[in-house]
Specification:
2 domains; 23 strands; globular; Aldehyde_DH_dom; 3,4-dehydroadipyl-CoA semialdehyde dehydrogenase; Aldehyde Dehydrogenase, Chain A, domain 2; binds NADP nicotinamide-adenine-dinucleotide phosphate; Ald_DH/histidinol_DH; EC 1.2.1.77
Length: 521
């Protein structure tokens, strides 16, 4: 069995004991094994903090941005290999693998470019200085200083590549060493990428470490002022929050968790019109892409009551054209869920939703292409509908190709229904009415990390309900975890500490040029 080793304290090390197995979710074949048992994590973390932290902090943002540019080059050079691994281990068709792999390359490249504009600074001024004294002889300058701890980056199974690099790029650009922990079931791709970057010798020793396999002991190895950035389920996030280091506030947490996202059709949208068609297209794309295994996928479709039947018919007609099965075939448009365990999870979640909804479209009867239904984690899309939706439908994230159609009476009810998700990553609005779009943005911004407006003139160029662009904030309040990532250089905030420096104005003027060497020890 191909064993995925851990990269700790500058060395590749296999874990002890029986490794967890990684499978091909279509054929069931065992692809690799991973174990982190027996690693000396406290020593590995100390080494990362001391070696990696000092080396990264000795550089300017622009120098670290140049490292990211070289990381992007190395990853790009191995792109084809990554697609092969994603096909085997995630069971995704080419277009879905691209969301993960090309999304990562784009994000690393984006931060390389943004960082290069930060010039030779070693820390960041936060706004202009403010006077503190009547005679203007004393003032305060707020500053953001790179954190001196390490960042532990724990990722979910659905984005082994993008999930790693959308966290890693802002952390490394900030000058913070990282320990990466991919979800075990799809860790192969993350492992391969880290291996390629380490072999290329781009990053200073200690800047990048990797722990594959189980998570035991990871949080215990964190020290006060370390950072933890987590993506995964709300249940796991709750467990992390209960760890003593987090309870005592010694370690800062950024959590990205579940989300029951919605798409809202405007009252002006006529059947077959551009806004109507844009919503139908987007819902189908979100249900198909990665078999619905995107935290941002549309789970609820809110439409004016008089459009309920027309929308149900239009979405169902397009879902019926999706071929499901082995992603190695060109005719297949939707591959597998990530594992048979995840298949069982989705089936039980769907059964719960079905108890509270009618089935508008069920592709389960159609044959899979070149995949054994008793083995493969392949699942056809299901569209549910509820004319009087219960709370369960607003609050249950089924992490697969499942969405529920719901009618609304008026826009006030539409906003109220969207908010029943109790904090979501994204809501999208489809309309040609500027008032509706503006009102919706205002009504939903507070409970959503991102509001995505689709009007006819943007029908072709909008970036997609579920696509997370590094320019835009990613994260949401409440159920979505309360975290914030990306959003351009805002992503660096989590990896910096903000403080106030008070002094005579002339002295404060020399702060921006403080040498990086001051941060290195
Ligand atoms: P998960 O079971 O919560 O696992 C997430 C990660 O946490 C994995 O790396 C897992 O490692 C690790 N982990 C589990 N228990 C841990 C513990 N006690 N201490 C430290 N680490 C621990 O989530 P998942 O099943 O991989 O992912 C699906 C979920 O992620 C969905 O709910 C989805 O909505 C959410 N998600 C959210 C976003 C977002 O940005 N908001 C993005 C993607 C996915 P092992 O794999 O080794 O168990």
């Amino acid at each position: 069995m191909h064993i995925l080793e851990n990269y700790v304290a500058g060395q590749w090390r296999a874990g002890q004991g029986q490794p967890a197995r990684l499978h091909d979710p279509v054929t069931g074949a065992v692809l690799a094994g991973a174990s982190s048992a027996g690693l000396d994590l406290p020593a590995a973390f100390a080494w990362a903090r001391q070696q990696g932290g000092a080396a990264l902090r000795a550089m300017s943002y622009a120098q670290r941005a140049a490292l990211l540019a070289r990381v992007a080059e190395v990853l790009t050079a191995h792109r084809d290999k990554y697609f092969e691994i994603a096909l085997a281990n995630s069971g995704t068709v080419q277009a879905d693998s691209a969301i993960d792999i090309d999304g990562a390359l784009y994000t690393v490249g984006y931060y390389a470019k943004q960082g290069s504009r930060l010039a030779e600074d070693a820390w960041r001024m936060d706004g202009p200085a403010d006077a503190l004294a009547r005679d203007n002889a004393y003032a305060v300058q707020h500053v953001r200083t790179p954190a001196r701890g390490l960042a532990l980056l724990i990722n979910a199974f659905n984005f082994p590549s993008w999930g790693l690099w959308e966290k890693a790029a802002p952390a490394l650009l900030s000058g913070v060493p990282i320990v990466v922990k991919p979800a075990t079931s799809t860790a192969w791709l993350a492992h391969e990428m880290v291996r390629d970057v380490i072999q290329a010798g781009i990053l200073p020793p200690g800047a990048l470490s990797l722990v594959c396999g189980g998570s035991a002991g990871l949080l215990d190895a964190l020290r006060p002022l370390d950072l933890l950035s987590f993506t995964g389920s709300a249940d796991t996030a709750a467990q992390l929050r209960a760890h003593p280091a987090l309870l005592r506030g010694e370690v800062s947490l950024n959590a990205e968790t579940d989300s029951v996202n919605s798409a809202v059709l405007g009252p002006d949208a006529a059947e077959g019109g551009p806004a109507f068609d844009a919503l139908v297209r987007e819902v189908v794309r979100e249900m198909r892409a990665k078999s619905g295994q995107k935290c941002t996928a549309i789970r609820r479709i809110l439409v004016p009551a008089e459009r309920y039947d027309a929308v149900a018919g239009a979405i169902s007609a397009q879902l019926a054209r999706i071929t499901v099965g082995n992603p190695r075939h060109d005719s297949v448009k939707m591959g597998a869920l990530v594992s048979r365990a995840q298949f069982d999870n989705v089936q039980s979640g769907l059964a719960a939703l079905r108890g509270a909804a009618e089935v508008l479209y069920d592709g389960a009867g159609l044959p899979l292409v070149d995949a054994d239904p008793a083995v493969a984690a392949c699942m056809a899309p299901t569209l549910l509908g509820a004319r009087q939706p219960q709370a369960l439908l607003h609050q249950t994230e089924v992490f697969g190709p499942v969405a529920t159609l719901m009618p609304y009476r008026d826009t006030a009810q539409a906003w109220a229904m969207a908010r029943l998700g109790e904090g979501s990553l994204v809501a999208s609005l489809y309309s040609d009415d500027s008032d509706f779009l503006a009102q919706g943005a205002q009504a939903l911004a507070e409970s959503h990390g991102r509001v995505h407006l689709v009007s006819p003139e943007a029908a072709k160029s909008h970036t997609g309900h579920g696509n997370v662009m590094p320019q835009s904030l990613h994260g949401g309040p409440g159920r979505a975890g309360g975290g914030q990532e990306l959003g351009g250089l805002r992503a660096l905030d989590f990896y910096h500490r903000r403080s106030a420096v008070q002094g005579a104005p002339a002295r404060l003027e020399s702060l921006p040029t403080a040498r990086a060497a001051a941060f290195a020890e």
